[in-house]
Amino acid sequence: MSNFLTDDTKAILLLCGVFGKNCSEKPLTQKEYTALVHWLMTMKMRPCNLLQSENVAEAAKGSKIALNRLETFLARGVQLGFSVEEWQRKGTWVMSRSDGDYPARYKKHLKDNVGVTCVNGPPDGHSGC
Question: What is the signed CA dihedral for 33, 34, 37, 43, rounded to 10 degrees?
Fold first, then answer.
């Protein structure tokens, strides 16, 4: 994967993204993701902490999401890497609500919903947001 994404955004995309047409497992639903985020917040953790395998079992238990689902999603780094390369070639950049530059108006509008935003063009102060 690339430095194109923050670790929080990588984790969010791995959990909630669809990569390719042959995805056998549906990504986390909004309800599941919200439960996971609430658990992370109570544990004073961030989505990027799930990229460390020692945190995944506890997260599964705390959020009531099957461990094998979380492990499957978080193991899709290669697929995410290919997607990121394609996005970069097309001039698309991605940020999530946990990124420092994420627009406040999006956070306000989306509230607890997954906040991943894709924008075409250079990431120069939210061009296109």
Answer: -120
What's this model's pTM, rounded to 2 decimal places?
A: 0.81
* 3-class SS of residue 68: helix
Rounded to a whole number of angstroms, the CA Rg of the chain reads: 14
Q: How far from each other are the two terminal CA atoms of the chain, in whole angstroms? A: 24
Cα 69 versus chain centre, distance: 15
* CA 79/CA 70 separation, integer angstroms: 15
Q: How far are the Cα atoms of 66, 76, 111 from residue 41, in angstroms, in the given order?
A: 19, 24, 15
Residue numbers of the chain with a pLDDT score lower than 70: 1-3, 22-23, 112-129
Provide the b/e sequence for 93-107 (b: ≥16 CB within 10 Å): bbbbbbbeebeeeee
What DSSP character marks residue 76?
Answer: -
17-28-5-51 Cα dihedral, nearest 10 degrees: -130
How far is it, in rounded angstroms, from Cα 16 to Cα 80?
11
